[in-house]
Amino acid sequence: MNIVVGVTGGIAAYKTVQLVRLFVKGGHDVTVIPTADALRFVGTPTWEAISRNTVTTSVHDDVARVRHVALGQAADLIVIAPATANTIAKMTAGLADDLLGTTLLATTAPVAIAPAMHTEMWRHPATQANIATLRDRGVHILGPAHGELTGGDSGPGRMLEPEEIHTAALALLAPQDLAGRTIAISAGGTREPIDPVRFLGNRSSGRQGAEVALAAADRGATVRLVAAHVDEGVLAAAERHPLIDVVRLSTAAELETAMTDAAASADVVVMVAAVADFRVAEVSHEKIRKENGAAHLDLVENPDILAGLVAARRPGQTVVGFAAETARDDAELRERGMRKRARKGVDLLAVNRVDWDAGFEAADNAVLLIDGTDAVVAEAAGSKRAVADALWDAVLALR
Ligand code: C5P
Q: Which segments in the chain show pLDDT lower than 50?
């Protein structure tokens, strides 16, 4: 997507560097348009290096390409962070005395602003009237947060954190094709206790599952995310999302209860979590000490939660599984995926290749999506968010 990030003259501009980085990391083409004042806080080389695009502020730059309207016409989304009281007033009046002003008048894309200013300026009737007008025009107002301000005082006026702006902005880009659906998703890796300090675990970071939840919620679904030891960064994004309800837990037994409960009212169930196949038969309530000699662990098999959910499937409910497989090549991966799809009885199985150095803890992923007729309905590769969106496209096509 083409994203324009407008930066105006507030100290919070330094945080916008991180926002631009998050958009670029997500595969978006980002053009930064600072106001002249913003450049006093963060300079052009920083914006160009982070966005990997040319940065100009004046309507007289790059005139041959009619840049003063071209950027607005090509934009899929415009985010202004920080948005000062001055810029908010200029937007309200429709002023176009710099590149950001002309871009805003030339666009039909959604516009989101993250105000940042001192509490008195935010509360001023002029600013409040301007915000009300912009909101009426469909501008999305993100924040401001209540917190510590630059002068050491505290109150509403602090810019939202870059991660919060990023989550809210991505939601504006998503189609609302899952609106009205209820979805249950498990993510992460279970931990089966051995004693009070040790557990049997696995390498799942939970990032793919959390992205499946975020993508669904951005597309309008109401989501229950059952999270077993999910990476805190991505889990925090899910917890901030108004359409996601996060349940944190640890063991396979807890995950089974939570998913059975969530699935009872879900239109779609997605088991992304890496569930331990075995647990320790008798958990020691004291730390096992090496002085007592080599420990021997008796393991018992955990239930296959996915199989249980398939058996209890409600009419019209779609059940999706994930499988991480080691395989020599794509043909073997596909073969293993087909067999597992049939064994689990799911409507769709996402198979990804894992190895010592692939599949876990990484930003990117690659999956084959196999349906009930053994067809590979999609091959998705890229960011975990891109893989999540491809999964939802496939689920919608099935339904
Ligand atoms: O058999 P395998 O563990 O590869 O299957 C993976 C799929 O089954 C995932 O969707 C996972 O969440 C689910 N699963 C489960 N209960 C288990 C083991 C795996 O629901 N005990």
A: none
